[in-house]
């Protein structure tokens, strides 16, 4: 077993090493003209300012939570079933350190991803002057820094903590640290980016009629900073958190399901770490396949990389299972996870691509105004839930029953299907982080006054990012659903290991009460983050209008707007809006558990998963659909730019912005955090229940 | 027991008698000027045409379903637990007849309500010429025709079927008949009304700039017809269905929970019918209190009626329980239901009234455009879920645990709290049907060119309808939630009575699969109905534009538009859009039960309840909020009529239309129908499971 842990750490170090190498490679590329560098420096400084403030706030939160954890876990509740409570300060401190380590790893990955992204944007734009291939390479390798750093740090962290403590519950602390940070980074970044985006668009494009990314717009820098803090740092933290949580959930399941047989127990507790190790190797190989082919299309290049990585991992797992004497069930489960991830990604593409009916129909009805556009897009968003839910159901049932049929633990199989999906995260994050980088490159090209040819190249690169996003979103949402199902099982195991039989029956009204409370949490969380966006955007709109009014030179192009003021407004707004959502995620589950008991908390987690997945799918897909319906009209259909249909399309796009970039993607992290909090504090809740 | 059944039928007959008397009273009122009568006749004819088509289609559906039921239930599956199947054709035919009776009763109530509504609208408008009080009385008494006919027919039907068969499962057939009809009437009416409303507004108000209800608009008649078929007939069928379903669910629970003691069994099987009887008497008294006071405000008059009716019923129940030797648990449960209904109604008022922050804030941000208005309104809609869900949770837990504490069946208590809430439906429907009648009266006043004073009076009456709607919606949604929780319990009892132990545990992946499939059904159903609205509205918009283009005399006021064409388009569109939603409601649950088993179907029902309630609350409240935000701007705030804020408000209002009048209110009926189908076909599903 120790051999595997060493291999895992080595793989993590290699991954991290490649990330560092690519980091410097990107920085060695041509940083472009002086003008371009100046524009890029505004974005870089804005992003760094926000990150500094965010991490300062997060450090305080992490220390406070760490102290709480250290105190609470000093009461060695592992023994509570036997009726006596030992006080073990060392366990409390270990748990707190593990928690802080998780938060720190997540933060470092986010920070590396961000700093390379704000260096890569201008370099990619500059390279677009040479050719598309070069520009693509810069952006994708920069994205890979994030992807590889993330998986590397995660596996090093989890393996070391487990190696030292041999206790998967302590690794749960690591996971909670990573997720707590992810939630704040994701929600904060999501609020930031859409505040700036909406304000910039509404005043810039709609009111005064200047184009996207026009340097006369005081919010343009904040908007581009937002792409980085929201999409790069936030999204990376998001997948980091699912990646770690699914692995830990399966480690916990391995430790409890096979508790009767020590050899089996160790074997299957470590197995998810092995799967991650193989996934890292597969990603390192898969990244080599990401090259723009002779057709000059970057979209297929990204998808090719993802599919190759999955295929390579599948081969690895077949060899591992056959050679290592693992049960065939884990093989079926891994394959079920990988196939489902790809299938869900491709079907969700149907609802957001300009090639199919939903987007075209939404664009068509836009000729009758904004309201019809909204209703139609929202309705297709609701329909888009169906294939993904069926996919998740099929993956759950397949991995469960194929594992059972192989004489194995079904619920362990469900967890493995999630880990199987997420094992390729190194590759997934690399393609996903590519998107905002080229989006930014386009912005810089525009602001720095580069040629139309460069802007066109940037547009092609940008469109490819959106296609890749569909598949990675399919992965991340379905993986999150399977992860929380595994965490849900882990929660039940932790409670039962404390000597409490746990039946979470829907015929029990306490459970139904829990489910209803859990089910309302994701919609409430979405509302809080979206209201934060509109409130902050409203303030920023006032600021932009004031600047235009008081400094007529700005619009004339003779005076530089005060970018920093908008950057500051966005940052302050985002950070101060995080308090309520964070309390909801961390305190509410514990409260439900203590007041209504562990069965109700089980129902609560179930309810939050059901609506969490549904709202995440609805919001992500509807948002993407509106975005592309507008873009479709902009290609000249139904009247093209400037027509009434286009105005309606812009309204839909703006509504979709916080749907797809603020509320939707935070929901994965929300349900993960709530499941982790519940599992982590399960012993405490069980203790309340016993007294 | 027979005495109680006789009393129930007598109360039903009295209620029906009063309804008939009021029906003729309304018809005796002054039908107004020739012009007004002509306008009213367009609406009446349009409504009757639609109803004729709808009922023709429904007759075919009812006969087809009746035959299926007769065949399926001829296999006496009650004996299946013993391994042999008797063929009992008489049971099959009885069940089919009960089903058809339910459908017929629901149809008659809807038809009476509709015909009186289309007679009352013009009479109320004419009376507004005299004074507000008179106009109010005409409209409210017309609404009472619907309310009293409905509860009268329901209790007569249920009591007779039970008296003849002594089998609550046969009464379930009656309930299914009522609900199947309700679903089609509600969804069809909802699609009809919003198709016409949106099309009329978008071309009339937005494109050519003529006011609401202008007779030059070709869709104006269809719009007013829609208010009747959607709000009067559809809503009546909706509450009819919850009313019957909750009563039947508790009858089933009474029969199974107390199966060990025959006296108790009979007593508590009949109890819900007694509660309904008392509720009818209370409503008949409560209606007397609905008088506009000296302040001249009709809104408080309606709410006073509701609250007095609740209080009277509470007194009745206290006497009944103490004198009749019933367990105190049913008293607590009834009170919990009544109080929760009122509280939920009042809190939902917070989110939709122009007096509080959500509406004002949504109006304020409208100054920044339609997109921000949509995001803000939608977010408050999400927040509005919270108090209602907490109310439902509290009502469930209170009625459960107070009943248990009284040494009684907790789950029976939950059912009673739903029946308690719905027992006052006679009063609730009366105030609710009042709304569309005065809305129509306003339309007729405008179209018939009555004086501004009359229109102002009609406006006051209309606004009161909206306030009343908030409380009745709170009742209907929370009652539907408690009803389906009781039906859910009834489903489990029916399955267990066939000798299958049913554990619906969230730790079982088959159950989780069922929950996920069930949870996605309400959003999918909403999407199908809303897409039907936008598709049909799109066609009607084309028709209106064509009429304006080809007959310039219409806009000049010299030529009458072709109203009938728009009426026909709306009717055809609505009816043909019902096929998919209906199949989803009836076939999907049976399919899940047969393929995945009774546990999965249990999970499915649970999942559909959770998201059904959440989406119903979201859509109803967000829709009401947008509507009132627009009205708030129209009072002169934030720029008033014609300002940019107003344009944004109109977009929000239009988006909210199908939310609050098509998709939202159909969801109650959807989850009831799915629960009823499952309970009714539970023996068949159990049989599949046993072989």
* Through-space gap between termini of chain A: 39 Å
Q: Uncertain regions of chain A: pLDDT < 50 for 5+ in a row? A: 79-84
Radius of gyration of chain A equals 24 Å
Q: Which two chains form the greatest contact, residue counts included?
A: A-B, 77 and 77 residues
| Contiguous helical run count of chain A | 21
Helix/strand class of chain A: mainly alpha
Shape, per Cα inertia axes of chain A: globular
Helix content of chain A: over 70%
Order of neighbouring strands in the sheet with most strands of chain A: 1-2
Largest sheet of chain A: 2 strands, antiparallel
Instruction: Provide the β-strand percentage band of chain A.
Output: under 5%
Query: Based on the structure, what is the oligomeric state of the protein chains?
Result: homodimer
Average pLDDT taken over every residue of chain A:
88
